[in-house]
Amino acid sequence: MSRLIVVSNRVTVPDKSGAAPAGGLAVALKAALGERGGIWMGWSGKSSGDREPEALSLQTHGNITYALTDLTDTDVEEYYHGFANRVLWPICHYRLDLAEYGRKEMAGYFRVNRFFAQRLAPMLKEDDVIWVHDYHMIPLAAELRQMGFKNRIGFFLHIPWPPADVLFTMPVHEEIMRGLSRYDLVGFQTDHDLANFEGGLVREGIAESLGDGRISSFGRTFRGGFYPISIETAAFADYARRAANNALVRRARQSIEGRDLIIGVDRLDYSKGITQRIDAFERFIRANPAHQHRVTYLQITPKSRSEVPEYEQMQRTVAEQAGRVNGAISAVDWVPIRYINRSISRPVLAGLYRMAKVGLVTPLRDGMNLVAKEYVAAQDPENPGVLVLSRFAGAARELTGALLVNPYDIEGTAHAIARGLNMPLEERQARWKRMMDHLLEHDVMRWCDDFLKDLTAP
Ligand code: ADQ
């Protein structure tokens, strides 16, 4: 079996004990790398200031080598904050209004990808299979091809791919699409993303669909496919079952004093629809006086990308909004919204999901959204909660037992919260079982195997 080389912006390096990393993606990639032996390369997350980064830092655990590089301050600014997070992220999440184009940033993005390719090249063997992850690394295959590498190279995009009219607002859209055509397999989360990609290329007259996922474009034939990412379903369910004994989960249960729990868990990001969700919760409370005093909405939201101005602004907006709603509808003995800006360990998270009667997952746009899948996996089969899910999350294509909502429709979401809290047990069980059966079969290992099987197919 050929070695596997994984390249992604950030790398999950095991701690000194070699313990399994937290998070399904890291677990699945580590398993795939362990089976074949290989390298996981990416950015260390550190800056070398204005000096050229030193040689790769290599750490070997079993048959996996973790290869990390620092980046200069300028690289971090242009490639990461500038182009990846302020152009590609908003565009792929349909936020034309937030994209900030700058020639410097675009050039920095392509330059850093060339740098990654140059650092990776000396480690590559002829029959290595290379799997590149996410929007930070789109031009990597083109760089490697230019250096003469003929290896199988696959790409998986974790975020959505927008329709042509959105994508084409980006000045370098053609270079980006040419970059994707240098892979052998380009994987998206859903059939919608794949259709946007293929449709955009064909509409521009720069590609031909050859059927069966094969696309001919920029002088090459490659394949497109969709591979919905998932979680370690059985392991997560197990965490949740055992979480009843966790001291923090027990204290959380006591503290809600028998009220119904509604939970939201997201990185603080404008794509996640947090402000619309708080509005919907307020609307629900005002429209349903019988639920006043009887529900607690727990929103767990670790800060992310605080260096990017839109995110810094959002931190303030959400905190103010939660404060304002609490000020308006709390009583002396009831605070409806608990808003937490911290990361929570996975076992505790699993226990909190299980306690919640409603899981609110209402992004305005999301590649997949693993929180939706984790919420389902964590439920008690005898008494499962209800998932209220945005139709604009990739997960909505699979989780058909959820109450699907349009997150822009505040009243509709408020109505779904009420429906979830009042849903009879039998209906909850039937909806949950449909989703759980699907997730047990389609877990993250299956996602990884499916992608690699197609990438290595003759
Ligand atoms: P993200 O945008 O980060 O991922 P998501 O899929 O929801 O979004 O994954 C978030 C992960 O972080 C979940 O596993 C969740 O449990 C964890 N998490 C969130 N808040 C937490 C907290 N307070 N404490 C601890 N853990 C927390 C991107 C794309 C998604 C896609 C994934 C994977 O934007 O659409 O599903 O990659 O491909």
Report on the structure:
Helices cover 43% and strands 19% of the residues. With 458 residues, it is α/β, with parallel strands linked by helices. The chain folds into 2 domains: 4-230 and 444-456, 3-Layer(aba) Sandwich (Rossmann fold), CATH 3.40.50.2000; 233-441, Glycogen Phosphorylase B (Rossmann fold), CATH 3.40.50. It has a 10-stranded mixed β-sheet with strand order 3-4-2-1-5-6-7-10-9-8, sandwiched between helices. β11, α10 (274-287) and β12 (295-300) form a beta-alpha-beta unit. The longest helix has 21 residues, at 309-329. 47% of the residues are buried. The mean pLDDT is 94. Adenosine-5'-diphosphate-glucose binds next to α13.
Short description:
With 458 residues, the protein is α/β, with parallel strands linked by helices. The chain is 43% helix and 19% strand. The chain is built from 16 helices and 16 strands.
Q: CATH-wise, what's the superfamily of the largest domain?
A: Glycogen Phosphorylase B
Range of helix content = 40-55%
Average pLDDT, to the nearest integer? 94
CATH class of the largest domain: Alpha Beta
Q: Please, how many domains? A: 2
> How many β strands by DSSP?
16
Query: Which ions, cofactors or small ligands are bound in this entry?
Result: adenosine-5'-diphosphate-glucose
Largest sheet descriptor: 10 strands, mixed
Number of helices: 16
List unreliable stretches of 5+ residues: none
Q: How far apart, in Å, are the first and last alpha carbons?
A: 13 Å
Helix and strand content put the structural class at: alpha/beta
Shape designation: globular
CATH topology of the largest domain, by name, is: Rossmann fold
Give the C-alpha Rg: 23 Å
